[in-house]
Amino acid sequence: MNIQIDGTNTLNKGAELMFYAILGEIKKGCPNATVYFNSNAPSGIKIEKDPDIDLRERLALIYSKYPNFILSKLGLPNTFFTSKYALKKIDLVLDGGGFQFGDQWNYSKEKLDTWEAYFKQLKQNGSKIILLPQAFGPFETESGKRSVEIINKYADIIIARESVSYDYLIKAGATPSKIWQYSDFTLLAKGVLLDKYNFAKGKVCVIPNQKMVSHTTGSSSEYMDFLIKVINEFKRLNKEVFLLNHEGPKDYNLCIQINQAFDNKLAIVNGLNAKEIKGVIGASNIVVSSRFHGVASALNQGVPCLATSWNHKYKMLFQDFGQEDKIFDFQGPWEPNSDKIKEVIKNHESIQNTLMTKKHELVKEANEMWNRIWEFGKK
Fold it and tell me: Model confidence over 184-236: pLDDT tens digits?
């Protein structure tokens, strides 16, 4: 069986972790498969290859700026290259993009044409397409409406990561029989704690996210000031804090700026791959994360977590773990946020127990989902 993994990369650590989670499930459910994946390795961290899996790397032309540049010089449509890039021998496409379709992306007509040409060619080649658990919607703009029309037309199965995304898909006219609902599946991927990061044990891990500025109404200074107040509150309560760069240069710059407020005395963890990041998060005592998969990696390892949010996916993930009240309002009054910090410290053990109970339930659901995927994919 030939399987292609789409929607993941090494620049976004959540996407990288999803890649490893998918690879692990292929190894269990379809061990003799040949697996193709689109790589952005020239600018990202190299994928760790598993010697037990026939893994073949491909240049990600569909996401690259170079083909469109070349095509424009040749006077050809931007769909010309991508429509011919869908391999003819792929039996099953597993798309692990965490959040790709919704009004927030405001895709251009050219971008949507590219998506459609790619999916269309896959289907003409006889490939089955499954969009693995991800956030969707809303779909109120013309761009959003067309994006849901495209995935509904060409995908065989669309898996919403939570009920809000499921409802957005239904409201937008997606075919109900195509839509499944299962939670984030990176809980099946194990972290790796390197010896040099054992210092994280017992400490508070703070994970910034530049999207809290670019995707919300908050200003950079407002967000930075909030995280500094959060760190000061933990320090006042005798908790040691370190910073973790979960993503790329923009998040790292936030870490540096925050650290300057503390005379550069906070440790900054930087340059790790997705599994190593999960290992550091799992070793921490408490996590404060603005990154979705920072939240996910904390909750699914039983680490109490607080977060800021720029999308409904955060609220729904906390809900999956029975922690609906753990999201900060960084633009609101400080006192309710301070109370959340104190509550997490006070009820640390009971929160851990709740998280592990919920994790066991979600693992069962994830295994059920993969069983259904293999049943469909092998038909």
Answer: 999 999 999 999 999 999 999 999 998 887 766 667 788 999 999 999 999 99
Closest CA to 55 of 116, 107, 12, 2: 2
Give the residue among 59, 31, 147, 146 at the shortest CA–CA distance from 97. Answer: 147
Q: Are residues 266 and 147 in the same domain?
A: no
HSE-CB at 110 with a 13 A cutoff on CA atoms is 12
Same domain membership, residue 209 and residue 60: no
Signed CA dihedral, 210, 213, 215, 216: sign only: positive
Provide the H-helix boundaries in the chain. 13-29, 65-74, 79-83, 109-124, 142-154, 163-171, 211-214, 220-236, 249-260, 274-283, 292-299, 312-320, 334-346, 348-377
CA 99, distance to chain mean position in Å, is 7
Question: How do residues 315-341 score in pLDDT, each as one tens digit?
Answer: 999 999 999 999 999 889 999 999 999
Domain boundary among 152, 181, 210: 181
Number of domains within the chain: 2
